[in-house]
Every structure is written in structure tokens, then in C-alpha cells.
Amino acid sequence: MTINPSRLAEFGWNAHFTSRLETDDFNNLAAARVTAVHRGHLQVAGPDIASNIPPFFSDDDEGAATVGDWLLLDPETLRPKRLLERKSLFKRRAAGTGRRLQLIAANIDTLFVVTSCNLDFNIARLERYLALAREAGVTPVIVLTKSDLSETPEDFAREASGLMPGLFVETVDARDPSSVERLTAWCGRGETVALVGSSGVGKSTLINTLTGKEQIPTGGIREDDAKGRHTTTGRMLHRLHSGGWLVDTPGMREIQLTDVHSGIDDVFSDIVEIAEPCRFRDCRHENEPGCAVNAAIEAGTVDPDRVRRWKKLAAEEAFNSASLAERRASDKAFGKMIKRVMAEKKARKGE
Ligand SMILES: Nc1nc2c(ncn2[C@@H]2O[C@H](COP(=O)(O)OP(=O)(O)O)[C@@H](O)[C@H]2O)c(=O)[nH]1
Ligand SMILES: [Mg+2]
Ligand SMILES: [Zn+2]
């Protein structure tokens, strides 16, 4: 078993990963993709590999293998040796007081931000998802569903296009394969997509159309079991009939805005630029003298609603990141304390 990029493309491998290999790796290791993470093992898939293997951790915060990761394995034992540098990573803060960082999915190329041509369409929510995509290192594509139910789907598309320079927007009837074909450019061999959006917008319908199977219940039927646990019977990665993969994990569905500072700056780069000459470095663009943002609002060169949404998102992000930083600091202090206690114990034993 060796590493063969053209066969690995079947599992979403692309040039990014080939460029991360050492010459020796090709003949000495095998590569496989993590398709599910369980408590004591990882489920992986690759050419001639469909196995459960031991979990993989390296020493940093983001070192544990997650869904979508590529691992280099010992070809004999299939033990994981190395985690390949990720192309992208979605992470979130766990529920509860600790609010630890959880890795959701890695190596997604494109995020379909799904909304419908009706009341679900909400600019602030879309901006949030765009920031999330940019932070993760993923190309966002806005997918407007239910085009068949709207008299003016092009109006929704036009408004969505204005959210970010160069943003892709596609309008579809999620139930209709010929309409969903517009999305195949992002769903081919070597491509991995994920999908976010509110309940009812047509995500499950879209997945069924993209996979060409009626795998997933639609119309508000829960996929979780009665106790609210997520059933994980091979639903994490779906193979698309155009050759790509779709990641659909519970974490991906519950994703929130965390640690997305640079993502927000990307989506609102025009306002960040306008704010550059503010007199104070830490200008909050409220009533500070010499505020360039307020001057632009006065002059009518920037949309005040957009500024308001930017401030709200940035404030929320600052709050979330602060609590994460505190959490990390206290984890470190706790680790040091344990080390000290162990060292003292050892020293006493040695007496
Ligand atoms: N007319 C129409 N109905 C759609 C479209 N997409 C989804 N639906 C319907 O909307 C409802 C919710 O879709 P579903 O895929 O379950 O949404 P999810 O909650 O995002 O997974 C279902 O009854 C679908 O049949 C569409 O593009 N056009
Ligand atoms: Mg659904
Ligand atoms: Zn200012």
C-alpha cells in the first residue's frame, strides 16, 4: 500500500495535500481520511482502506484528528503516524460553562450557506455565516433555495451578491436535480463541501439531490433518536454523485460564531478600511471625536445598517474570544499546578 494521489482524489485529496508530503512518504506510508470520530477510535477510509483505527493526538490545541482530516498511516498496522496540515478547519465552543474548543470538521473546500427566497432571508445571519467560512479558510457560496416559490428570486440573489466582493450566489430549486446542477462545479472529484443554514431552508433536500439518494428525512423530521442523541450511522460524510464529498456532522449543524476575528474583517473589509484613519486606535465608532466611520455615515458613503451589524458582530466575537482566552490561561495554570504537585510527590518519595 502506497500513497497514490490520483486514487486518493476519490476521497477528496487534492494538490494541497500532495504538497505536504515528504518524498519518502509516498512509498512508506498509506493515507486515509477520517470519516467519523468515536470515543475510542477513528473511522477512516481510503483506497483499499475502510477501518477503525486508534485515535490520533498531537500536542497542540488543534492536534486531535477530526472528521475530514487526512492521516498518514503505517501501511501494515494502520496506526496513525502523522496528521497532514489542514487546508481549512471549523471549530466551535462546546456548550456548558467550560466552553472548550471543539474541532468540527477539517479540509472542507466550500461552504454552502443555505437560505431560501422567502422570510428566512436575513442579511445579518448571512454575514455571520460568511465570517465563519472566511475564518475557517473555506470559500463560501450562498445557495438560495425555493426559487420556484418566489416571483423574484433574482432580487434575493442581487442582495446576497452585495454582501462581499466576489461572492458566489446560486439560486436553486433544491428538489430538482437539473437546477441543483449549478452547484456541481464545487462538488467534483477532490472537492469537499459542507452546508449550513437555518432549519427548514432545504439542507436535507439539497443533500438528497446532490447524493442522488433519498438518504435523509426532510420537512422537520428529526434525524436524532428520541433521546436527542445523534445517530451516527455513516452519515458524517456523504459521497456526491458528481465525485465529491459532503460533510454533515451534528457539530456542523450547530455551528456558532466563535473566534472569527479575521473572518469578520474579511467580510467587512470596506468598513475596516474606512475606520483606518479614526483618531483613536481603539475607537468604538460611537461618539469619539475624529471618528472616520461616523464621518462616512454623515457623508452617506457607507450604509449605517451595515456598520451597525459589523459592530454587533465584532462585539459578540470579542466577548467570545475573551472567555476562550481566559479558559486557555486557566487550563495552563492548572496543568502547571498538577506538574508541580507531581514533582513534589516524586521528590518526597525519593527522600
Ligand atoms: N418548493 C420547494 N420546496 C423546497 C425546496 N427546498 C426544500 N423544500 C421543502 O422545504 C421543506 C424543508 O426542507 P428540508 O430539506 O427538510 O430543510 P432543512 O431543515 O434545511 O433540512 C421540505 O418540505 C422540502 O420539501 C425548494 O427549493 N423548493
Ligand atoms: Mg434537515
Ligand atoms: Zn471610529
How would you describe the overall organization of this protein?
The protein has 351 residues and is of the alpha/beta class. It has three domains: 5-86, Roll (SH3 type barrels); 90-253, Rossmann fold (3-Layer(aba) Sandwich), CATH 3.40.50; 268-345, Ribonucleotide Reductase Protein R1, domain 1, CATH 1.10.40. It has twelve helices and 13 strands. Strand 9, helix 5 and strand 10 form a beta-alpha-beta unit. The radius of gyration is 23 Å and the shape is globular. Bound molecules: guanosine-5'-diphosphate, magnesium ion and zinc ion. Zinc ion (ZN) is lined by residues 275, 278, 283, 285, 288, 291-293.
Which hetero ligands occur in this complex?
guanosine-5'-diphosphate, magnesium ion, zinc ion
Count of individual beta strands: 13
- Number of self-contained structural domains: 3
Report the portion of residues in β strands. 15-25%
Name of the CATH superfamily of the largest domain: P-loop containing nucleotide triphosphate hydrolases
The coarse silhouette is globular
CATH architecture of the largest domain: 3-Layer(aba) Sandwich
Give the structural class.
alpha/beta
Uncertain parts: 223-234
| Lateral arrangement of strands in the main beta sheet | 10-9-8-11-13-12
What is the CATH class designation of the largest domain?
A: Alpha Beta
Number of helices: 12
Order of helices and strands: HHHEEEEEEEEHEHEHEHEEHHHHH
Largest sheet: 6 strands, mixed
Helicity, as a percent range: 25-40%
The CATH topology of the largest domain is what? Rossmann fold
The termini sit apart by 53 Å
Mean residue pLDDT: 86
Quaternary structure annotation: single chain
